[in-house]
């Protein structure tokens, strides 16, 4: 019997969420070491030289980067497929995933979530209100205007659920953690798309762990998740003092 895959990365990371949703949808067994990258030890640095999450470990194979991991999962566990078969649609799905990972990552995670949450509670530093205001009021509306033209009024982008739907919704889940809600009058397609995607069972299952994680100090999260029955690894790499990674994007 094959061993469960191992995921290293915190439940509230949108990049980790993207991978976990793929695993849930494909029915693949996994264990998770739910650490934030900021508290990863030296072994974590060896496995992730950029000190980024998630990491996937499949036996001796170690993979970094959520996009690489999701493509590996698609190749190894092809059913149900989370990438369109049509080459043009498949390429477009990858582009929308990249747009989410890059632009929404910069705006939602670094401009809002990091500033309002991580910077204050992990590093004890003041929120830069100017950065937050620019991200929320200027940069995020640019993304929402673009997505409003790309997303369907009903259902998923390519008919069946795909990596594009998963990636986009994952970032707006983090936006909700810092009390941002998409204006349904200004961006009705995007607001409805995010709501129905996050309502899918795979997202809802993870949301139970996310909701407790976001309300729990870093040093208590593993204990709380164990009590909830999360599929934790036997050991953790999250025992170091908080420090920043070598790159901005996680």
Low-confidence stretches: none
**CATH structural class of the domain at 87-201:** Mainly Alpha
Fraction of residues in β-strands: 5-15%
Q: What structural class is derived from the secondary structure elements?
A: alpha+beta
Assembly form of the protein: single chain
How much helix is in the residues? 55-70%
Q: Biggest sheet, strands in spatial order?
A: 2-1-3-4
Number of helices: 9
What this model shows, in words?
This protein has 250 residues and is an alpha+beta fold. The chain has a domain at 87-201: Glutathione S-transferase Yfyf (Class Pi), Chain A, domain 2 (Up-down Bundle), CATH 1.20.1050.10. 55% of the residues lie in helices and 6% in strands. It has helices at residues 14-26, 42-47, 66-76, 87-121, 129-150, 163-177, 188-198, 201-214, 218-228, and strands at residues 5-8, 30-33, 55-58, 61-64. A 4-stranded mixed sheet has the order 2-1-3-4, covered by helices on one side. α1 (14-26) packs parallel to α3 (66-76) and α6 packs across α7. The longest helix is centred in the middle third of the chain and has 35 residues, at 87-121. The protein starts with a strand and ends in a 22-residue tail after the last helix. The mean pLDDT is 94.
Give me a quick take on this structure.
The protein has 250 residues and is of the alpha+beta class.
Defining traits:
single chain, 250 residues, alpha+beta, Glutathione S-transferase Yfyf (Class Pi), Chain A, domain 2, 4-stranded mixed β-sheet
Fold blueprint:
Elements: E1 5-8, H1 14-26, E2 30-33, H2 42-47, E3 55-58, E4 61-64, H3 66-76, H4 87-121, H5 129-150, H6 163-177, H7 188-198, H8 201-214, H9 218-228
Parallel strand pairs: 1-2
Antiparallel strand pairs: 1-3, 3-4
């Amino acid at each position: 019997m094959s061993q469960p895959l191992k995921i290293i990365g915190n439940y509230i990371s949108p990049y980790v969420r993207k991978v976990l949703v793929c695993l849930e949808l494909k029915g693949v067994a996994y264990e998770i070491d739910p650490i934030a990258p900021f508290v990863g030890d030296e072994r974590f640095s060896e496995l992730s030289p950029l000190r980024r999450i998630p990491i996937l470990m499949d036996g001796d194979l170690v993979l970094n980067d959520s996009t690489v991991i999701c493509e590996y999962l698609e190749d190894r566990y092809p059913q149900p497929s989370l990438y369109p078969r049509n080459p043009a649609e498949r390429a477009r799905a990858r582009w929308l995933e990249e747009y989410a990972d890059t632009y929404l990552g910069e705006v939602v995670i670094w401009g809002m979530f990091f500033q309002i949450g991580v910077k204050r509670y992990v590093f004890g530093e003041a929120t830069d209100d100017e950065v937050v205001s620019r991200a929320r009021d200027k940069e995020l509306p640019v993304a929402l205007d673009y997505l409003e033209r790309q997303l369907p009024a009903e259902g998923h982008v390519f008919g069946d659920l795909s990596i594009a739907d998963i990636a986009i919704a994952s970032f707006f889940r983090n936006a909700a953690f810092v009390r941002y809600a998409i204006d349904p009058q200004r961006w009705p397609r995007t607001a409805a798309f995010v709501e129905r995607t996050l309502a899918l069972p795979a997202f809802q299952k993870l949301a139970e762990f996310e909701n407790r994680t976001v309300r729990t100090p870093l040093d208590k999260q593993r204990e709380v998740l164990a009590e909830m029955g999360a599929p934790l690894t036997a050991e953790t790499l999250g025992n170091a003092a908080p420090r920043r990674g070598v790159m901005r994007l996680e």
